[in-house]
Design brief:
heterodimer; A: 205 residues; Lambda Exonuclease, Chain A; globular; B: 1262 residues; Rossmann fold; seven-stranded mixed β-sheet; six-stranded parallel β-sheet; 31 strands
C-alpha cells in the first residue's frame, strides 16, 4: 500500500497540477534523485548569506568563499537591501497550514525566504538565482505563499516579491481579493485524490 | 511539570499540554520540543497536525536530540565561521556530514600518529572512533579523559588523544562535522547566543545525553516552563550511547508526578526489572522459551510459529523479531520463507542491495582504466539486471569477451562497441558522457538512464538516494582529492552504525526484524515479540575495548578502578532496563535459543538465563536405561573431589560419562548444582558436539545445558565473556587464525628471511612447541636464533591483524586468570565440577587451566587411557601430567572391554607384554579383560600375513573383503593405514574392484554440500564445460537426488546445456536456474544451491557453513572467479577460518562401504573386520636402533629449553608407535588382519622393505 500524502508544498503542487503520475513517482514512490549542481549550490550559499545578513551576523568572513564575480553580485544585492534591513521581521521562516477538503485535512508547507513588514504592509521576499517566474500571478508559489501569509498574519495587505539576485530586477504579485486561493489549491489536491482512487480502482480489477 | 511513568501514552499528555499553550496564544516558535530520534519527532509532529485546529499551526520547533544540534549549527553558522582562525578556505555552509566521511578523515589522521607497534592494528580506527564518540557523547574534558586513562591503565592514551586532536583540527579545516563532532560545535555555540525558547518539552528524558542536558541547564534560567516526561527505569541507552540517569526533581527543584496506574503489564515489567537486577529468573504466563541445538532448527520453528499466527489472522505488523544477529544467515533464511520481512538493521552494507551492488560494479568498471579485475560473472549480472539483456545472449557475449580478453586483453567498452545492440549503444553513449565526471554525476546518469520508473523499485530508489547523498558529502568535503575508485571502495566497505538523522520506514505488511535497541528507540509496539538467539552474547554486548570503555567514560563515573564486578553489575542493570522496556512493548513474548550459532560455534552468555523454561527442566525423554557394569559402577559412585578414570578401549567410557553427567544434573552427587556449573571437556570439537546432542536428546526442554566444549572452546569463552579480551589488549573482533592463513603468514615470513620454502612447515610446528615451552618455563634463552626471528615476526603479524592462534587461546586465558583475581574468582565460583575426557592427550597448559578453574571446589574428574596416548608426536600432550594426577586422585579402573573378540584382546595385551619385554615404557600395567558372555570368543581372531609382493597383499585383502561382503553385506570393515597418503591408494584399489568405499576424512570436499556447491559454482563460471555437468549429475545421482537418466542426459550433451531447450530434464532446469540467477553475494548463491539440494537432508546444518566459508573467502578476493578457485584450492583442508562442518549421521554413506582411514583417525571407532596392511618397519618401527629421526622431530627439540637427545626422542616415538598399533588392534570386533609385504613400489621403483618388528613379536605370543 503506498503511503498517503497529506502535506503539500508549492513545488509538489506544481508537479501534481502538471502531471499526477510524475507527482506519484516523485513524492509517493520516491523514484527520483536529487541532482546537485553548482548553480543550486550557489543559490543555497546566497540564501544562507542573505539570511545571516538579515539576522545581523557578521558575514565578512563567510563571503570569502565566493569568487570575485559572485562576491560582487552579493554585495550589489546587499547594497539594495541595506536601508530596508530593519523592516525584515523573519527570514528562512517555515510555515505549516491546516486545511479541510471534503471532510479530510491536508496541510500546506513551505519556507519564506524573508518576510518584510513596513507599516501595515507585508512583503514576502523570494530570492531567485535563476529566472523570475513568467506568469507570477498564476504561479503556485505566489498562490500558496500569499495564502499562507494571510493565514499566519491575518491580513490582506500582502504582496509577494521575486527578486533576481544577479540582475536585481523584481516582480511583485499582490493579494487579489477576487481570487479564490483556497479553491485553486483544493482543485489540485483533488487531482491527487482522484488519481489515487483511480489507481485503487484499477488495482481492484 | 515532570511526569515519571512507564506508561507509553505519556507522549499524549505532552501533546495536549503543547496544544493548550498554542491555544493560549503562545507562538509555536517559542516552544522547543525534544525527542529521542527522528522517528519520534515525526510521530509527534503528525499528532500535532492531527489535533491542531484549522489554519496556521506555526513554525514548529520540534527536534530530535541530534536534530536540535544540527539545525542550531546551520542557523548560526556565521558565529562559528567567524571564530575559526584562518583566512583561506572559508565556508558559507558547513558540511554536516555522515559518519562515513569522518571515518575517512580519521583514517588519514591515524597515519600521522605513531602508535609504536600498534598502528597496524586493523581495529585501531574502530577503537579511536568509539573513543572519540564516547568522549563527546559524555562531554568529557581533557582532565576527565586523563583520569579515565589512568583508571583503565591505558597504554596508548597519549597517542589516542593526539590522533583525536588531529582529527578535530582536520574536521575544522574541512568544515566536516558528523553528529558527534556537531556536539562539540554546539557546546561552543549555544553559550554565545541568547535563548529564544520560553517553553521546553522533553519526552523520553531518560535517554537524554549529557550534551543536551548541559544545554538545558544553560537555558534554564530564561525558560518559563519545562514539561518533562520520562521513566526513571528507562535509560536503555546507558553506557554505550551516552544516556545518563538524571534526577529531574533536582534539576527543576520541583516534585514529579508519578501517575498511579493499575496495570498488570506495568507491574510485571517492574518485576522483570527487579528480577534481572537480582539475577533471578522471570516466570510469566505470557513469556515462553524454546530451545534448540542448531540455529536453523531455531529459525524453522520461528517461521512455523509465524505462519501459525498469520494463518489465524494476525497481521504481519503485529509481530516483530528481535535479535542481535541479523546476519546473512537470518536474512536469507527468512526471505526464503515467502513471508515479507522488514530489516531495521543497524549496519546494512550498501552492497546488500542487489540493484545497488550492480550499479556499484558498473561504476567500478567505468572508473577502472585497465579492466583487469572484471569478473565475467558480475558482468553477466550487469547485462541482465541493469541493461535488461536477454539471458542466453548475455552468457554467449560474455563467453566471447572472455576468450577475446584472454587473447588480447580487450577493454569491455571497446568490445561491446562492435555489438549491434541497442542497449550496448546506449551504454556506450552514457559511458562516453560520464567517464570523466564526478562519481555523483556518474551515479545520477546511470540511474536515470537504466533504471525504470517502477514503483516496485521504490525502496531501491530511496537507498540510491541515500548513497548519492553520501557521495555528495564526500565530494563536498574532499573536492577532487579522493578518486572515484577509492570513493567506491570506501563506500562499499563502510559499515558503521547508522547516522541518527536517518530513519526507517516501517511497512505495515511486513514483519519487522530489528535489534532490541531500535525497537525500544521507536517504541515499536507489537502483539507478538519473538526474541531470537537469546543465548548469544550479542544481547549483552558491552561497549568495551582497548582505548574505549563505555562504562568508565560515563560522565558520572566516580570510582578509581574498573573491576569485573562493576562490568557485570552495570551490564546486568542495562540488560534489566532493556528487557523491561521490551516487555512493555509486547503482549506475548517468545524466546528462542540455539546452542550453536550459524557458524557452528557455541553460544554463551545470553539473556536466556533470566527466563524460566515453562516445562520442567528435569523432564527427560524415554531412553532405554543403561545398567552399568560392575567396573563402571565405581565411576558413578563418585562423591566429589579428585578422581581419575582409566578406561580401556571399548570399555564404554562415553556412555558412563553421560550417565555420570546425568547423575550430577539430578543433584544426587553434589548439592546446589546447576547445568552452568558443570564443565565437560573433550579433545575434539566433534566429540563435544556429539556429547551435547546426546544430553540434549535426553533433556529436550533443558534450556541451559552443561558446558560441553573442547578446552579451546572454553578458553575462547573465557577470553570473550564480559569483554575480558580488552584486558589482554585485544579488540572485540579478534579472530583465531586458521591453518590456511597461518601457513600463508609463515610462508611470507620465511621467504623474507631467505628460508627455503620446504622448511616452512618445520617452523609451523615449532612455534606451537615453543609456546608450550614458554608456558612451562616462562621466558628462556632459545638457542635457535633464526627460529626466534620467525617467531617474533609471526607474533607481530598476529597482533597487527587482531589474530590469535590456538596456542594463544590457552596461554592467554591462563594469563588472564592468573593476572586478574576478579576474573579467576568469577570462574572458580562457577566451575563446581569439571570432567575431562581423553586426559592422556592433555597438554601442560590445559592441565594448568583445569587445575586453576577447578581450584575452589576441587571436583575434578579426568578420564583417559594412557595406553591410547597417540598424539604426543604432533601436539604438546603431556601424559606424565595425567600419570601424576592419577597418583594424587582416587583412581578408578575400567578394564573391561566388551568390544573385541577374545583373540583380539589377547593380541592387544600381548602388544603390552612385547613392549615390556623390550623395556619400552609405553603402557600402563592395565590388562584388558572381556565381559562375560558379551565378547566373541575366538582364539584365532587375529591373522598376520607377510607377502612377497605388494600385489599379493592387495589381492589377499581384496579377496577377503569380497568374501566378507558376500557372506554378510552389512558387515563393517575398516582398513587402517599409517598415512593420509596411503588412503587414496586403497580407495582407488577398492573402487577399481567395484567395492564401495567411505573415506573418513575431515577435508572440506568430503562434505557433499561443499562438493556440490563448488561444482555448480564452477559450472556457472564456465557453462560450456559439459564435463562439469556430468560430474554434477553423477555426484547427485550417487547422493540419491537425481535419477540415472540425468547422468545419461548429461553424458549425451553435445553443446552447452543452456543453449538447449530440454524441458524434460530436471538437471537442465536446475542448472539453467542457477546459471541465470544473479547476485553479487556468494553467500546467497551458495545458500540457494545448498538449500535446493540438501534442505531435506541431514546435511542441512552444513549449508550455512559452506555459505559462510564462501562469503569469508570473498572478502579477501577481488573477483567471484578467484573466490571459486580458492574454494577449490582449499578443498583438502579440514576447516576454513575455524568453521567446521557438523558431523552427520553418515550411516547411509557408510552402509556396505569399506571405511578407509588412518590409525590415528580410527580412535573411538569400531569395525567387525579390521585390516592393517603395509606394516613395514618404515611405517611402524618398534626398534630404537633402527629408527631414523625425521627432520621435523629434531627441529622441534632445538626450540626447547631442555632439548631431548636423539635417543630419548627416538624412544618417545617408538613408545607412541606401540600405542598406535594398540589402538588399531582394539578397533576389531570379530577379526583382525595384520599384513605387510616385502616389496613395495616406492616412487615408481620396486624397493625392499623390512617388516615391522611387531609382526614377529606378536607371533612369539601366539
Amino acid at each position: 500500500m503506498p503511503k498517503i500524502i497529506d502535506t503539500f508544498s508549492a513545488h509538489s503542487l506544481k508537479i501534481l497540477d502538471k502531471n499526477p503520475k510524475e507527482f506519484m513517482d516523485k513524492f509517493v514512490y520516491h523514484l527520483s534523485l536529487y541532482k546537485k549542481d553548482e548553480r543550486t549550490d550557489l543559490g543555497k550559499k546566497f540564501h544562507s548569506l542573505i539570511c545571516a545578513y538579515i539576522k545581523n551576523f557578521d558575514v565578512s568572513k563567510m563571503i570569502m568563499e565566493l569568487s570575485e564575480k559572485e562576491k560582487k553580485i552579493y554585495l550589489n544585492f546587499i547594497d539594495k537591501l541595506k536601508d530596508e534591513k530593519s523592516f525584515f521581521i523573519e527570514t528562512e521562516y517555515p510555515f505549516l497550514i491546516k486545511e479541510e477538503l471534503n471532510n479530510e485535512n491536508y496541510y500546506l508547507t513551505g519556507r519564506f525566504d524573508a518576510i518584510y513588514k513596513k507599516d501595515s504592509e507585508y512583503i514576502i521576499y523570494d530570492w531567485k538565482t535563476l529566472n523570475l517566474p513568467k506568469n507570477p500571478k498564476d504561479d503556485l508559489q505566489s498562490i500558496v505563499y500569499i495564502y499562507a501569509l494571510k493565514k499566519i498574519y491575518n491580513t490582506k495587505n500582502i504582496k509577494m516579491r521575486y527578486i533576481s539576485l544577479e540582475k536585481l530586477d523584481f516582480i511583485d504579485v499582490f493579494y487579489d481579493e477576487n481570487f479564490d486561493y483556497k479553491n485553486r489549491i483544493d482543485e489540485i489536491v483533488e487531482k491527487y485524490k482522484n488519481f489515487t482512487s483511480l489507481q485503487d480502482l484499477s488495482a481492484h480489477f | 511539570m515532570i511526569i515519571n511513568t512507564p506508561e507509553l501514552n505519556r507522549t499524549e499528555i505532552l501533546i495536549d499540554e503543547y496544544l493548550k499553550l498554542l491555544k493560549e496564544g503562545v507562538n509555536a516558535q517559542e516552544i522547543l520540543v525534544l525527542l529521542r530520534n527522528s522517528k519520534k519527532k515525526k510521530d509527534f509532529i503528525e499528532k500535532i497536525k492531527k489535533k491542531s485546529p484549522l489554519g496556521n499551526i506555526g513554525n514548529l520547533k520540534i527536534y530530535s536530540f541530534e536534530g536540535l544540534i544540527y539545525n542550531y549549527i546551520l542557523d548560526n553558522w556565521a558565529i562559528v565561521e567567524n571564530s575559526i582562525k584562518s583566512d583561506v578556505n572559508r565556508k558559507i555552509i558547513p558540511n554536516l556530514c555522515g559518519l562515513e566521511v569522518s571515518q575517512y578523515i580519521f583514517k588519514e589522521c591515524i597515519k600521522e600518529v605513531d602508535f609504536t607497534g600498534y598502528n597496524s592494528k586493523t581495529s585501531l580506527l574502530h577503537q579511536l572512533f568509539r573513543r572519540n564518540a564516547l568522549i563527546n557523547l559524555n562531554n568529557l574534558s581533557d582532565e576527565e579523559v586523563a583520569k579515565r586513562a589512568k583508571i583503565l591503565k591505558e597504554s596508548y592514551s597519549i597517542e589516542a588523544n593526539l590522533a583525536i586532536n588531529k582529527y578535530k583540527s582536520k574536521s575544522i579545516q574541512l568544515r566536516a562535522f558528523d553528529y558527534i563532532r556537531q556536539m562539540n560545535i554546539f557546546q561552543f555555540l549555544y553559550k554565545k547566543l541568547k535563548n529564544k525558547f520560553n517553553y521546553v518539552f522533553l519526552d523520553d528524558a531518560d535517554e537524554i545525553t549529557p550534551v543536551v542536558l548541559a544545554y538545558l541547564e544553560h537555558i534554564k534560567p530564561s525558560v518559563k516552563d519545562f514539561y518533562i516526561a520520562y521513566d526513571s527505569n528507562g535509560s536503555s541507552r546507558l553506557g554505550y550511547l551516552g544516556a545518563i540517569n538524571i534526577n529531574f526533581e533536582e534539576f527543576l527543584s520541583q516534585k514529579e508526578i508519578k501517575p498511579k496506574i493499575e496495570d498488570k503489564k506495568i507491574s510485571n515489567a517492574k518485576e522483570i526489572l527487579n528480577l534481572v537486577k537480582n539475577n533471578q529468573k522471570i516466570d510469566f504466563d505470557n513469556i515462553s522459551l524454546k530451545s534448540f541445538l542448531k540455529r536453523n532448527e531455531m529459525t524453522d520453528e520461528v517461521l512455523k510459529d509465524i505462519k501459525i499466527l498469520i494463518n489465524s489472522g494476525v497481521r504481519p505488523c503485529e509481530i516483530c523479531l528481535i535479535t542481535p544477529l541479523s546476519d546473512e544467515f537470518l536474512k536469507t533464511t527468512l526471505e526464503k520463507s515467502g513471508l515479507k520481512f522488514n530489516f531495521l538493521t543497524k549496519n546494512e552494507k550498501l552492497n546488500q542491495n542487489k540493484l545497488i551492488s550492480y550499479i556499484l560494479e558498473l561504476l567500478k568498471i567505468i572508473n577502472d582504466k585497465n579492466n583487469e579485475d572484471i569478473s565475467s560473472y558480475i558482468l553477466k549480472g550487469i547485462f541482465i539486471e541493469l541493461l535488461n539483456l536477454d539471458k542466453k545472449e548475455s552468457v554467449k557475449i560474455i563467453q566471447e569477451y572472455r576468450l577475446e580478453r584472454d587473447f588480447k586483453g580487450s577493454n569491455i567498452f571497446d568490445f561491446i562497441k562492435n555489438k549491434n545492440n541497442d542497449e550496448f549503444i546506449k551504454l556506450i553513449e552514457v559511458y562516453e558522457k560520464i567517464r570523466f565526471e564526478k562519481l555523483s554525476v556518474q551515479l545520477y546518469e546511470i540511474v536515470t538512464n537504466f533504471l525504470p520508473l517502477d514503483k516496485d523499485l521504490s525502496k531501491d530508489y530511496i537507498k540510491i538516494a541515500q548513497l548519492l547523498k553520501q557521495i555528495n558529502d564526500f565530494e563536498d568535503v574532499f573536492k577532487n582529492s579522493v578518486s572515484n575508485n577509492d570513493l567506491i571502495i570506501q563506500l562499499e566497505n563502510t559499515i558503521i552504525s547508522e547516522n541518527p538523522l536517518s530513519d526507517d520506514e516501517i511497512d505495515e505488511n511486513s514483519i519487522v526484524v530489528s535489534s532490541a535497541q531500535k525497537i525500544i528507540d521507536y517504541s515499536y509496539k507489537t502483539k507478538y515479540q519473538f526474541l531470537l538467539d537469546v543465548n548469544n552474547e550479542g544481547w549483552l554486548r558491552q561497549d568495551i575495548g582497548p582505548l574505549y570503555n563505555a562504562w568508565v567514560m560515563q560522565k558520572t563515573w566516580s570510582k578509581d578502578s574498573f573491576e569485573l564486578e562493576d562490568n557485570i553489575e552495570l551490564t546486568l542493570d542495562r540488560t534489566a532496563r532493556i528487557l523491561y522496556k521490551l516487555y512493555l512493548l509486547a503482549d506475548k513474548i517468545t524466546l528462542y535459543q540455539s546452542s550453536y550459532d550459524s557458524l557452528g560455534q557455541e553460544n554463551f552468555s545470553g539473556i536466556d538465563k533470566y527466563y524460566k523454561t515453562n516445562s520442567k527442566t528435569k523432564e527427560t525423554t524415554k531412553v532405554k536405561p543403561i545398567i552399568p557394569r560392575k567396573d563402571q559402577e565405581e565411576v558413578l559412585n563418585y562423591k566429589g573431589g579428585l578422581m581419575s578414570v582409566s578406561a580401556t578401549a571399548g570399555s564404554g567410557k562415553t556412555t558412563i560419562m553421560l550417565l555420570l553427567v546425568d547423575k550430577i544434573l539430578s543433584g544426587e552427587i553434589l548439592s546446589d548444582i546447576e547445568p552452568k556449573n558443570i564443565f565437560v571437556l573433550t579433545f575434539m570439537e566433534s566429540a563435544a558436539r556429539n556429547f551435547r546432542e546426546r544430553i540434549k536428546a535426553k533433556y529436550p526442554n533443558l534450556s541451559e545445558l552443561p558446558n560441553i566444549s573442547t578446552i579451546h572452546g572454553l578458553a575462547l569463552r573465557i577470553i570473550k565473556e564480559n569483554n575480558n579480551f580488552s584486558r589482554l589488549g585485544l579488540d572485540y573482533d579478534f579472530e583465531i587464525i586458521d591453518e590456511i592463513k597461518r601457513s600463508a603468514i609463515l610462508a611470507e615470513i620465511t621467504y623474507s628471511l631467505g628460508i627455503a620454502p620446504d622448511k616452512t612447515d618445520l617452523y609451523d610446528s615449532a612455534i606451537s612447541a615453543y609456546k608450550n615451552e614458554l608456558s612451562i618455563y616462562g621466558e628462556f634463552d632459545c638457542k635457535n636464533k633464526l627460529f626466534l626471528s620467525v617467531f617474533q615476526l609471526y607474533q607481530a603479524k598476529l597482533k597487527e591483524q587482531n589474530l590469535i592462534d590456538y596456542d594463544d587461546l590457552l596461554l592467554l586465558s591462563l594469563k588472564l586468570l592468573k593476572e586478574n583475581k576478579d576474573v579467576l574468582e568469577y570462574y572458580q565460583d562457577i566451575v563446581k565440577i569439571i570432567i575431562e575426557d581423553e586426559a592422556q592427550d592433555s597438554s601442560f597448559t590445559q592441565q594448568n587451566l583445569i587445575t586453576l578453574l577447578g581450584g575452589k571446589y576441587k571436583n575434578i574428574i579426568r578420564c583417559g587411557d594412557i595406553n591410547q596416548a597417540i598424539t604426543s608426536t604432533f601436539t604438546n600432550s603431556d601424559v606424565a601430567g595425567f600419570r601424576e594426577f592419577m597418583k594424587k586422585s582416587k583412581n578408578v579402573v575400567m578394564d573391561r572391554c566388551q568390544r573385541c573378540a577374545t583373540g583380539v584382546l589377547d593380541c592387544a595385551n600381548n602388544t603390552v607384554k612385547f613392549a615390556q619385554k623390550n623395556e619400552i615404557d609405553a603402557f600402563s600395567s592395565l590388562v584388558m579383560k572381556p565381559v562375560e558372555g558379551v565378547n566373541i570368543v575366538d582364539k584365532n581372531a587375529v591373522k598376520t600375513e607377510i607377502f612377497e609382493e605388494e600385489n599379493l597383499e592387495n589381492q589377499f585383502i581384496l579377496n577377503k573383503i569380497k568374501q566378507i561382503l558376500k557372506k554378510d553385506k552389512n558387515a563393517t570393515i575398516g582398513i587402517l593405514l599409517r598415512s593420509n597418503f596411503a588412503i587414496n591408494k586403497w580407495d582407488k584399489l577398492l573402487k577399481d574392484n567395484s567395492i564401495k568405499t567411505y573415506k573418513n576424512s575431515d577435508s572440506l570436499i568430503n562434505n557433499p554440500v561443499y562438493k556440490i556447491c563448488l561444482l555448480v559454482l564452477e559450472f556457472i563460471l564456465n557453462p560450456y564445460d559439459n564435463k562439469k555437468v556430468v560430474e554434477i549429475a553423477q555426484e547427485l545421482f550417487e547422493y540419491g537426488y537425481y535419477k540415472y537418466e540425468e547422468v545419461k542426459y548429461a553424458k549425451s550433451l553435445n553443446e552447452a546445456i543452456f543453449l538447449k531447450d530440454d524441458f524434460d530434464s530436471q538437471l537442465w532446469w536446475d542448472l539453467n536456474y542457477f546459471l541465470f540467477k544473479n547476485t553479487t553475494s556468494i553467500y546467497e548463491l551458495v545458500n540457494e544451491i545448498g538449500s535446493y539440494y540438501f534442505s531435506n537432508s541431514k546435511q542441512k546444518d552444513n549449508i550455512s557453513l559452506v555459505a559462510a566459508i564462501a562469503a569469508k573467502i570473498q572478502l579477501t578476493q577481488k573477483t567471484f572467479e578467484n573466490t571459486v578457485n580458492r574454494l577449490r584450492e582449499i578443498q583438502y583442508k579440514t576447516n576454513f577460518s575455524n568453521i567446521k562442518f557438523f558431523s552427520v549421521d553418515d550411516t547411509v554413506q557408510k552402509a556396505n562401504a569399506v571405511q578407509i582411514m588412518t590409525l590415528h583417525k580410527s580412535k573411538g571407532d569400531e569395525f567387525d573386520w579390521v585390516f592393517i596392511p603395509e606394516m613395514t618397519q618404515k611405517n611402524l618401527c618398534f626398534d630404537i636402533g633402527e629408527y631414523k629421526l625425521k627432520e621435523n622431530s629434531i627441529f622441534i627439540q632445538k626450540v626447547k629449553k631442555e632439548p631431548k637427545n636423539d635417543f630419548e626422542l627416538k624412544k618417545d616415538i617408538i613408545e607412541e608407535n606401540y600405542r598406535l598399533i594398540y589402538v588399531g588392534i582394539t578397533r576389531a570386533k570379530k577379526k583382525l588382519y595384520l599384513t605387510t609385504s616385502n616389496k613395495y613400489k616406492h616412487f615408481s621403483r620396486i624397493e625392499t622393505f623390512k617388516n615391522s618388528e611387531i609382526l614377529e613379536g606378536l607371533n612369539q605370543y601366539a
